Structures are given as structure tokens and as C-alpha cells.
Transcription factor domain-containing protein
Amino acid sequence: MEATLIGTPLVAIRSTSTKTLLPVGDLTSEASNTPNVELEMAIVSFFGNSSPLLATLRDMIELVSNKTGTTKVSKLAEYVQLMETLMETVLGTLKGKLTTMPKNASAIYVHHKALSIKSLLNYGTFLLSLYTHIRVYFEHKNDIQMAFHYEKKIIQLTVTELLPIVTFIADDPKQYYGPMGALVTTKFFISTLQRSSFTGLSTLTRLRYHLHHYDAIYGKEDTDTHFLLQKVTTKSEICCKIYWQSLRRLIFQFQMDPRPAEKIRDTVEFLSDGTNLNTGAFDKIWRFRYTKEQLSEIIDLYDSGLEDISYSEESFGSSTSSSTDSASPLFDFNIDFDYVAESWMKELDDAMISPDIFLGI
């Protein structure tokens, strides 16, 4: 249910190829990039018999998809509303979880706090995938109003909800979740942060494309829209840089491969050169006009997320990656738990706090 940055569903037609995607201009109701999903549904159903969690996933798949893999968007939208209600009424907000850990916190307290933040991150990541999928669907249908509606939801989730907490947690996750709680939650947080970063890059790519082809899309006379478009593009780029800086901090703390973070920075730099956007690949779905009202709404969302963040062009060291480095999985995080646990257990010893309080995790 995820989508690539250029707005084409991630999966390919299994009957013809497992690698290539149909060009955006060739997508129709009869020819799409959605495969037959009987195999996936069979696997999920098999494991669902023994796992309540997967049984729920199986029910959701059967609710929103038929056996040819065609998404029932109306059902998907209903499911999204249910998840939004669950997060709002039961799980709370990420910012609401950003409270410092009390001294000598019990194992139950640490476990509950770690579990609640993991639940929010997991639901948020899943919602982000659904939002993207639905937005792409409406773009292909040329329903710009509904596509923009879900574009705003994406920004609300990745900027208004997530951005205000990322710099604080990146500075010191132990302060908010304790040593053991941070070990439990940090991998989920890093994965969410990277996914949000790539979603932010998708938005930045769209805005940069509009700026570069402004005369063709809006016309030279519309200077007011150009000013707003420049303003929102700048804010979008700042958000991407904050994601990169925060991800970089966490990667250094956990002695992880820095290349996933460097890809974000390199993409921002790539997009800053407008000549890289001299392509017609995006024309059919991206050459719609933002209205002044829509751009103002996006600016307000960015301002809300950036309100309490002090941003600077800070660097976290030179890149250790290069174009000749071997490819690494984007979401394969191998945390050196021995290194981290040894370091943090020493902190517990220094503070004369018994590690036994964490055995409930």
C-alpha cells in the first residue's frame, strides 16, 4: 500500500515483470501497477490462524482489496478514519509522550511508556502509507481536491505531529524513556523518522518541480503565488534537513551505518539544482496548480511544526558514504546492543540504580 516518490504504486505487475513499473502516463483503470495478491493474502491468512495481530491484518486486507489486488479506496478511507479515531481517543499524541523519565521509575512504568510510543509510531507509519496510497489514487483520477486533502494529512502527520519531538529525542532518548526504554523504542523511532524523511523529500520534490517549471504551470504574471511557493519550499527543505540532522545524531549514538541518513542529505542537495528536474516524467500528475489558499494552508502546517524548533545549518561531520559504496537496505537497522547496553548500564551503576527494576521489560 505504499507508493514511490514519483507517485506510482510500489508493486509491479507480476504477470509481466517483478521489477519494472508502468510509466505514470500509461496507468489506466485496466492497466495499473497493482499485482494479483492472492499469494500474499494466502500467506497472511495462514499465519493469521495462529496470530491475532495478523488475523486483524488479514481482515483489513480483505476489507480494502479484492483478489486481483484492486484497492477499494472508499473502504480504505473508512479504515483510515477508524485508525485516526483510535490514535486521537486512545493512544494520544507523540508530543504528549515527550515527558522526562522520573528517577527510579518502575519497570511497569518504563514498559508502559515504551509500549505507548511504539504503538503511536507503528500506527503513524501505517497511516502514512495509507495516506500516500490514497493521494496517489486521486492524483491518477485527476481529483486534485481530494489529492490535496490527503497531502495535508501527510504533512500533518510528518511535520505537525512528528517534527516537534524529533530534535529532543535525537539529543537524548534516555531522558524521555530511560536507558532500557530507549533501547526498546529507538529502532522504531529511527524507522519512523526515515520514512517521514522520504515522505518529506517527496513533498520537496513536488515543490521544487513547480518552482522550476513555474512559468509553464502558473504563468509569469502570477507573482503572488510564486512568493508563496518559494516560502513553502524553503520550509519543506528545512524540515528535511532537521530530519537528516536528527537521524544523523541517533545513528552516531548507536554506531550504525550512516548511509541511510546521507541519502536524505544528498537528495536535498540534488533537488536544489533545478536542472535535475528537467524531465517530463512527472508532467501528467504534477502539472496542476496550487491555489494561494492551498499554499497558505501548507505554510501554516509547517509553521506549526517548526514553532518550537531552533534550526541552524549545523553539520554532524563529513559524509563517510560515496557513490561507490555497496547498496544497503533502507530499513535494515542493526543496532549494536552490546555497545549501547554496556554504556548505559555503566550510567546506572554510576547513579547507583539497580538494573533489576528493568527486568519487567
Summary: The longest helix spans residues 173-212. Confidence is low (pLDDT under 50) at residues 1-22, 315-341, 347-361.
